[in-house]
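Backbone geometry tokens:
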Amino acid sequence: MTTPGDRSVKPFTAVRIVAKRELNTRLRTRSFVIGTAVILIVFGGYFLLQATLLSGAGTSKIGLTGQATGIADQLTSVSRELGKNVETVTVTDPAEGRSEIESGDLDALLSGTVSDLQVLVKSDLDPQVRAALNSIAQQQVLNAKLLEAGVDPAQVAAATASAQVDVTTITPPDPEKDQRMVIGLVMVFLLYMSITTYGTFVAQGVIEEKSSRVVEILLSTLRPWQLMLGKVIGLGLTGLIQLVILAGAGLGMATATGTLTLSGVAAGTVLWGLLWYVLGFFLYATIFAAAGSLVSRQEDAQSVLTPVTMVLVLGFVVGINLMLQSPDGQATAVLSMIPLLSPVLMPGRIAASLVPGWEVGLSIVLTLLTIALFTWLGGKIYHNAVLRTGSRVKLREALRG
């Protein structure tokens, strides 16, 4: 009988061979190619849709008829002050204007006098347009009352315009906050999906080799740690390649369609995301490999993988909610420093807010230490359990050997 861990193959050569085998096998699978292509198509459709929506977002087309045509310029300027773009057109026939409202060519039709404006819409009126029209009508009534009292409306307007609230900010506002948040959330989602997917592949591969007894043949020339490490590296590289493709293509499509203007921030987020993917994958892959070695059938895989995936799911759900509510909050910062959650949350925080350098450095150090600990524990469990078939191996027995 051959002895597991024969030294006929040099350690790093053995790891490289196993990693290359896993990488080549996964990259050539139909599921990898089709899955990547489908995600890219979804990305392309989403960005095209966003570009189409953004091109018309914030713009209302308003028809003016009768005396209401006199407020065209005023309506445009007041709406712009309220953050709304308004395009005005003159409508000579009110009946034709009603038809255009029904067909969606016009968002609203204005008629009547300036002090008594009548608005026709299909279902509802944009709140900003309503505010602009109310402001114009109120200003018209005020001007009329001032003239009745013998006061020049222009002088009153100049006097009231000079009265402004003096606002002092502790930190300057970030006009790029919304885009940074979206970039951060997208990266959090991609990292969560990649780590979960390829970590599960590691466990499934271990169980498949164990159930088919292929592992017994492999361990006749390889040490258990060489087989486990090679499998982790190979699948990790596969996930990294897919993440690079998706992130790079997504960044290019978002920039090309005008959906994203912070290309520098996005590129930096991608680089941080790749680093944290490597850390996160090595952190979880050894756990997945150890968990997979405890069972001999794919049907039993869920029972050992659920506790691991639940940690990722919990961190993802809680982290997403905290980032949406307060990316700079203390709770978000604390969770992102926990090694099991750092690979998902920290790159999202880096994109969405300004994270102190010492926090990033500390989280990397803590994650590396945790990787070392889990690699040792995972290797021990894998070594003791991978050749044991039949019923599920208890964790305590696998740790004892």
Q: What stands out?
A: The longest helix spans residues 177-211.
